[in-house]
Amino acid sequence: MSAGLSDETLRQIVSGSAAFNRRVDVTGALLVDGQRFFQYIEGPPDGLEAVRRRIHDSRSHAAVLPVLDMAISTRAVPYWAMTHIETGQIVVSGLVNARWDEFGHSVPGMDQLVGLLRPHFPRIGTAGARRATAGCT
Questions:
Q1: C-alpha distances in Å from residue 103, one per residue of 27, 106, 135
Q2: Does any domain span residue 76?
Q3: How many Å separate Cα 13 from the centre of its chain?
Q4: What CATH number should be reported for the domain holding residue 129?
Q5: pLDDT tens digit string along 21-76?
Q6: What superkingdom heads the lineage (predicted)?
Q7: How far is it, in rounded angstroms, from Cα 81 to Cα 21?
Q8: Which of 84, 112, 134, 135 could form a disulfide with 30 if both were Cys (CB 3.0 to 4.6 A apart)?
């Protein structure tokens, strides 16, 4: 995160991201620990590319470290165009250092992320998506 990012600026980022994401059919969550963002987004490839460009052009962070880019069959957060969840540094560090490159049916980092998000939403949705991406900024 950029130094000195205020709570109000963070609210504006989330609100603007949610509005943009609705237009490009992307859903996601932003976990914030006071020093870093961990962002998860999912949706069609063209929508994800548009969101990635916005993220890279943003001045709210100094660097972007992608940790996941994979095809998915079901959205993990189908009802959030974008939400933000305050969390601790241990949580974000755990996500950054999770295993995201597993082959097979389970990606441990994704399992960890969904486990963290699940208490914040009413149910796991079933809306389809083509890809998901996550990373730390």
A1: 24, 7, 18
A2: yes
A3: 13
A4: 3.30.70.100
A5: 999 999 999 999 888 889 999 999 999 999 999 999 988 888 888 888 888 888 88
A6: Eukaryota
A7: 6
A8: 84
